[in-house]
Write a structure and sequence with these properties.
The complex is a heterotetramer, with two copies of chain A and two copies of chain B. Chain A is α+β, with helices and mostly antiparallel strands. Chain A contains 17 helices and 18 strands. The longest helix of chain B is centred in the middle third of the chain and has 10 residues. Classes of the chains: A alpha+beta, B mainly beta.
């Protein structure tokens, strides 16, 4: 087995890989940017190497520096996590050249699936159904308008190198095309250094259903059933669950079989995910893209199947066959994941800053993957997701109840988080009955401010008033007995401003 | 000590009366009856983890952040932002001559981040919903739009600038 | 369903019950002594009531105060946790009289199983094999010597009201009987207000295997297989696992069947545990006692079966039938629990005090039930167990690896804990091959100081020296340049004292 | 600054040499070769959670508690108790005339707790292994026994007393 693995990532996913390494008796090497010297992955890894300034381009995306850290530490393999260099063919190829194992699929598979047009064509050949769209790249906004007329609105403008919602824009009518096209190109250039885009029809009433597949270098491929990730905003997933409440047993098996067949067709090994757009009425499904990496939401699959996907990745990268067969994969119970982000739950704007108090949920059937700790300052340079909270239950209902109580237990102060949003989603009729689609947040969720309905407002008002009083008292800026006491009059006669 | 507070668009009056063993709290929502709460000091206890607050026979671990007239109160995974004025600070605000929560005549950044693009110039007449600038923070681009018709008076940032939360970005005249 | 439940306990088990209540939508009421105003169960419960001074007798064991808290809060039911009033017939009977539901078995069952001699006789009648011993109570040390001659050394002197190792003494030869007898009586009087004791033969090479049973008021009884709890010191369990590595499949089924039959014979409902002494060579098993409450180690059963035992207790107390049938109970994978105690791992003396830093393990297949938090002062009045760390694995080997990495991740400073002891046990040949018995710690474990072998001592030495230097510097009590610098001579010529 | 330390029965000499950008640490186990470590200050970083220490290319979060000559160092779920003397404190100890880690002529409590029973009286000749008293802490009774033959000189506690960790309980003469 590998003796030492370098993790070319940060945050919770770096912790996830460190844990797998520890359990396998492998030394883990963290890398960190200037902004991350205090980050938990540096603290928990066996070793830690500095790889550059705060901006990702100069550190976590800096291939030379990462390779140098591998050589300095003597790491025999690299786990890329998700994001950053995880789906970068050049990086995978470079490691191959340097004689360092890449824990992921072959560069050829990354390449093939990384270009969304090639991916679509390949999948069509392998017999996987796909959504109608542009025949290839769309060079200008004018071309986009032409293509859109053929495919029909609404359309999606998508970056060929994009992922995770970056470099993607939904357009409902012709007048919006120009601005959206530019925005998608800008974002794509900014994040991926490549501004090529294409166009697809936007399927209505859609659900996001994805199939986890896993292959080894011996040619075995299995699937680990589906995840539903339809609770999204701006194509950023918020809540995921497995199994999906909408996919019938026979469709689930069919989606699994098609995915395994397709993965075999391209000689895929390591963890991979086939994303489908699923019509909640007709139960049709269309291939969207394949993610050639570990997904953020992989824990829900682990919770229902009992399989440790990261350990399997490491084993497969070393050349071992899969430790489980398709017949060993049984979905037991139900798992739901909530992505906890440092952001304003009403405006969705990121809210990095200093964490004051932090206490994570614990207890039965709760899993926490978090890199938050008290007095940690969340850097502004990276993703706002600071934790994943996963609950398992015998039934979907129980899993929801558990997630709810774990959210109540989660203490994270000093920054705003989307916990109130999660609480509100878990309370929504369309979530509870499973009928939600990817348009849930935008169309069905309703008044965002309503998410602050769960607690007694008086608790907040009284706490603020007593602490404000204590503040004045401690600063000595106010003398108790000298204040005129006209409260009742004020209360009855005078309105507050604003 | 008397405070005026605002929460969810409602106005409140809160009197804090400190006694040796308890807090006497009089709370009144505008237009509603006032209620009095006698809170033993043992029930509002400052600890390292925050304030352990037993209220209405329920237990809360509360964290209060802020000073002056702006407070954020966190508990049980949620939070509230509460503007809070006592007589003195009300006076203070009135001297400044501005409505504390009045209509906004400027655009401030709601987060620390980087200015990616600016879509207006000084003198522009902008309409509600019109994009003003794009900020990037935590890998996310955020388009900031106008909320009411106004004229751009001054732009205080340049493309590429890094700004702190609360920084003044654009001034308007209505 | 109940609208409000009072939890007559503290520490991690109070948190466990609060969580179950939250998931079921039931209001939870905490009670707290003077020493526990800052304790986590007070913070996490929906409501909290003061029940008396720090000593347990005046608060958590004070039936009148607990009943008053029930009435003040309007709680319809009481969960007693383990310890304290959990197996107190008078308490259960008093609640019945007051019209408050007791979440546990009937007072009659508690009574019957609480008196160990009656319990033994009842089980013998129900066809359960038992260990030879005194026919009844042993009033004096002289009687004890007589009985011991018949039964044969080594013997155990046990308090009839005892439990958890309290009021119990192991005696190897006649000369030790007198002191041990007195000690057992003292402890029993002190903790249970009852100094009656009896004697049993001490089975050699023994394993502690227990069967979890569960009954409802409709007369259904199921078992949830076994737990092995042989890693003990002074009859206090340290590590537990499920399934046991020593119990063959047919014996496991037989033990389960006998336990279900016995529970049915006494009309048992709620959670209960049959403790057996298991001969690791002959695979014989003898009934030791029945615990008529939730066990500390119940999470390992939850992890392998997926059943939430506390929720089942609440449902059954309300009158609902069990939510699962015997055929639904499948052991999946392997779970191990480590009890984290505030104690010196070498001397086993309790080490209460102020927790400085505290960061709990997280990640895949790890469960933490802990009431520790940073800057919390552990009171001296109660049990030293502050947390339970549970790991699940596909195999026993994987569960051990996970527990190991989670122990490495556990940061708890300012107090001594038994984490180094756990690390050492998990590294021991007899633990790894599963051949350990209840005598493991005393006979096989070896040099206790050896548990400090895992980390580089230089890290500790250098950290201490730099921080000591910083301390001197910050206090200004030392001037850098004035110190004579004769280190090399000192280093080579002069020995350290001590 | 020079320290003498003791760990696991071994004696060490440690020199701490503070430079603007690094710590120069010379470490020598008695009878062994000395080793020098140049530790960049960025690698031994005080944070709220303790000290983040990158040593020998491994990462530790270390918490050091203590002052004077007794330190406890915690990391990765384990800890070490380290007596540490610099020249000044060695001098200090020698003035007191007692061997710092010499044979014990007294019984001290190793934990905060309550005295449940005392089995000896002043003047008793006690043998190794003989029970002296019983302390209770966290529901556990602990019998404290003599480690070497001696005579009870003074008993400083009474049955029922609550005592702190480290409190002197019984004095002996050998």
């Amino acid at each position: 087995m590998f003796k030492k693995i370098l993790i070319a990532n940060r945050g919770e996913i770096a912790l996830r890989v460190i844990r797998a390494c520890r359990e396998l008796g492998i030394k883990s090497v963290a890398v960190f940017s200037e902004a991350d010297r205090n980050s938990l992955h540096v603290i928990l890894a066996d070793e830690a190497y500095f790889v550059g300034p705060a901006p990702s381009k100069e550190s976590y995306l800096n291939v030379d520096n990462i390779v140098k850290a591998c050589k300095d530490s003597g790491a025999e393999a690299v786990h890329p996590g998700y994001g950053f260099l995880s789906e970068n063919t050049d990086f995978a190829a470079r490691l191959k050249k340097e004689g360092i194992a890449f824990i992921g699929p072959s560069p050829e598979c990354i390449d093939m699936m990384g270009d969304k047009i090639t991916a679509k064509k390949t999948m069509q050949k392998a017999g996987v159904p796909t959504v109608p769209g542009s025949a290839g790249l769309v060079p200008t906004a004018e071309d986009a308008i032409k293509v859109a007329k053929e495919v029909g609105y609404p359309i999606l403008i998508k970056a060929t190198s994009g992922g995770g919602g970056k470099g993607m824009r939904l357009v409902h009518k012709e007048s919006e095309v120009k601005a959206a096209f530019k925005a998608a190109q800008n974002e794509a250039r900014n994040f991926f250094g490549d501004d090529q885009v294409y166009i697809e029809r936007y399927v209505q009433n859609p659900k996001h259903i994805e199939i986890q597949v896993f292959g080894d270098k011996q040619g075995n491929v299995i699937h680990l059933y589906e995840r539903e990730c339809s609770i999204q905003r701006r194509h950023q997933k918020i809540i995921e669950e497995s199994p999906s409440p909408s996919v019938p047993k026979d469709v689930r098996e069919k989606m699994g079989d098609i995915s395994v067949k397709a993965a075999k067709a391209i000689g895929y090994y390591s963890a991979g995910t086939f994303e489908f757009i699923f019509d909640s009425i007709t139960k049709e499904f269309f291939f969207m893209e394949m993610n050639t990496r570990l997904q953020v939401e992989h824990p829900i699959t682990e919770m229902v199947t009992g399989v440790d996907l990261v350990k399997e990745q490491i084993n497969v990268a070393f050349g071992k066959p899969l430790s489980v067969k398709q017949t060993d994969i049984v979905q037991r119970g139900h798992a739901i994941e909530a992505r906890i982000c440092a952001e304003d739950p009403v405006t969705f704007t990121p809210n990095p800053g200093l964490i004051r108090r932090c206490r994570h949920p614990q207890g039965p059937f709760i899993r926490v993957d978090s890199y938050a700790y008290p007095d940690y300052e969340i850097p502004i340079h990276y993703d706002p997701m600071i934790a994943k909270l996963i609950a398992w239950g015998h039934t979907r209902e129980e899993a929801i109840q558990r997630l709810n109580r774990a959210l109540d237990e989660f203490t994270l102060t000093g920054i705003k988080t989307n916990i109130p949003l999660h609480k509100s989603i878990l309370d929504h009729k369309k979530f509870l009955d499973g009928s939600y689609t990817t348009q849930f947040i935008e169309k069905d969720f309703g008044d965002l401010k309503d998410m602050f309905r769960f607690l007694d407002d008086r608790v907040f008002l009284i706490s603020a008033a007593i602490e404000a009083y204590n503040g004045y008292k401690e600063r000595g800026s106010w003398k108790h007995n000298e204040l005129p006491s006209k409260w009742k009059n004020v209360g009855r006669d005078k309105a507050l401003r604003g | 000590m008397d405070f005026q507070a605002k929460l969810k668009g409602k106005d409140y009056l809160i009197r804090v009366d400190e006694q040796p063993k308890y807090w006497g709290i009089t709370l009144q929502e505008k237009g509603q009856k006032e209620e009095f709460h006698k809170i033993p000091k043992e029930h509002f206890k400052r600890m390292d983890q925050g304030v352990s607050f037993l209220f209405d026979e329920s237990s809360y671990m509360v964290d209060v952040v802020g000073e002056g007239t702006q407070y954020t109160v966190y508990t049980r995974g949620s939070y509230r932002e509460i503007p809070l004025y006592n007589d003195e600070s009300l006076l203070h605000e009135s001297l400044k001559g501005g409505g504390a929560m009045g209509a906004s005549d400027s655009l401030k950044s709601g987060m620390p981040g980087k200015i990616v693009d600016i879509m207006v110039v000084v003198g522009d007449n902008v309409e509600p919903g019109q994009p003003l600038l794009i900020m990037e923070a935590m890998k996310m681009e955020n388009e900031m739009k106008a909320t009411h018709p106004c004229v751009v008076k001054e732009i205080l940032v340049n493309k590429g600038d890094s700004v702190e939360s609360g920084a003044l970005l654009i001034k308007f005249e209505s």
